[in-house]
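Throughout our pipeline, every protein is held as a single compact record rather than as scattered files. The record that follows is passed on verbatim for readers who wish to inspect the format:
___
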Amino acid sequence: MKELVRLRMRPSHDRKSFRYMLDYVDQNGKRRQISLGHADKRQAERQRHEKELELRVNVTDPVSMKLTDFFRDSLARTKGQVRATTLRETAKSINDFIACVGDIDVQEVQYQHGEQFIQYCSGQDISAATVAKKVKHLKRVFQLAEDRGQLDRHPLRKLKPSKAPRRKIRVFTVDEYARLCASARQYEEKGRPVKWELLIRMCLGTGMRRGELMNTTWRDIDFANMTVEVSPKKDCDDTWEWHIKDTDRRTLPLTADLVKLLVELQLSQPEGNPYVFVPMARYELIQELRRSGQWTVEKGRSPLSKFCHHFNKIRARAGIASGTFHDLRRTCLSNWIVQGLSVHEVKELAGHAGIETTDRFYLAVRKDVVDRARAASEASRKGDSVAHLLRAPCESDKSGRPPCVSALQVKP
């Protein structure tokens, strides 16, 4: 019989003692940890047994149902726990999996069905990155089913799709950025209510995501300290519900130029609209949709309609062949790294859940890095040794050797 509660030892900070911990998964599929607060093994085993009995009272036996019903039940259980977009992507992955293996019984799913699904997706001209994302969603569904006791085992636990090649990070040059701003000014002069130039400047200066910018209110901006706070919004009379990606509230710096532009925008905006970048007409329309029940949390992620369409027009008018608004964020984070910020500092400012995201998507190799690498290769080719490079900035002592070398105990 599968063990539902695991007993383990957790050492203290000074590593001189330990206490026992209980690890288990609750009825909602969430992993839990309980500290027993002592190091008595016999008592800990008894407490583990008691917790095991408590959980088994509410654990269902492994279910037998078609994949369609099983997946529908799984999506209903996780609704409200994850983003609507994640649920939608999971549903698409599920539909593709059923189209591949058929509507079989969930207990009949085997590892080979996962391999069959990967081959099926590859035959549909789906990119390796998208296949990996689909497999991730499927594995999560089966993992939750195992945690709930619906499955004896996770059939796709060891399934690994092919690694997707890393895409080249697109960053805007200084010239492209200047042309984007000029094109945005011209775009606004034609009667567009959205302040596109300020949006572009804010993204490049703070690294904020599109949804974060569009859900920024005047209360989030601290003019005195020259900062902007990325914070979630509640469903109130004047604001709609919005959640930060990875639920990471953070404070970002503003430059003096951005503060000046924001002050000018605030003075020119009519009263009654708390949002910085949502035009008044659009805000009033959204308020009507909210009152009639036609507004959803999902729509609040991007309150401005046809955002990408307008930005692509600005980019095309600037004579730039490719690039997205999100590339401005990538450019900002890459600039921070080039200017000396550590990867961990950039991770915190960017609001990434893990350092892997910062490494994978935003550590772009800039031209100055390539130039320095070329110079190092040229120096090595000409025979310049490490010792020679060390001697350059050091002053020689009486022995003729630099202090940085004299301090070492060199064997003859």
